[in-house]
From TrEMBL:
Transmembrane segments: 62-80, 86-112
Membrane among keywords: yes
Protein name: Transmembrane protein
Keyword annotations from UniProtKB, A to Z: Membrane, Transmembrane, Transmembrane helix
Classification of source organism: Bacteria, Pseudomonadati, Pseudomonadota, Betaproteobacteria, Nitrosomonadales
């Protein structure tokens, strides 16, 4: 999946754009609209907390950091313990999994409180009243949908794409 971004000048244009994307068979759960705080989106699919926050990248960083630190700590503990070589594999596995889980949880909680780092580039436009529409598409449909948006919605300004994203957010 790839996420592509479009800036639209107002709610009427966004509504027309989203309806056309639904006609193009993009599921509603893959369309996310972000607007200035207090803007009534009515039936438009509003971006969830997962799209607005830095949850996923922070959880991934926490997973890697927590797992790495736990394994390093386990290696140091095993090196300092005489005769611990017989249970080294289990200790390393348990430490790594526990540290990775704890790191992912802490990282995710921190990420929920931080704004999505990918959306910082759009902050000024959103504050000026523009609407950001994010589409999560299979890579094979990115060019097709971009061309459709360009031909049917000349006011929709394409803003690029993210690298591949996980399917679940």
């Amino acid at each position: 999946m790839k996420r592509i971004y479009f800036l639209l000048p107002g709610i009427d244009t966004a509504r027309s754009f989203v309806n056309d994307m639904l006609v193009a068979r993009i599921p509603e759960r893959h369309i996310h609209v972000l607007a200035r705080r207090g803007t009534p989106l009515e039936e438009l699919p509003e971006a969830s907390m997962l799209q607005k926050s830095d949850f996923s990248p922070a959880a991934q960083r926490g997973l890697a950091l927590g797992g790495g630190v736990a394994i390093l700590g386990a290696l140091i503990g095993l090196a300092l313990s005489p005769g611990a070589a017989m249970m080294a594999g289990g200790v390393l596995l348990a430490s790594g999994l526990g540290g990775a889980g704890a790191g992912a949880w802490v990282g995710g909680m921190v990420g929920l409180t931080a704004a999505n780092s990918h959306l910082k580039a759009f902050a000024n436009a959103i504050e000026q009243g523009q609407m950001l529409v994010m589409l999560d598409l299979p890579r094979t449909r990115v060019d097709e949908i971009s061309a459709r948006a360009h031909s049917l919605h000349p006011l929709a300004m394409p803003q690029g794409a993210d690298p591949d994203i996980p399917v679940f957010p």
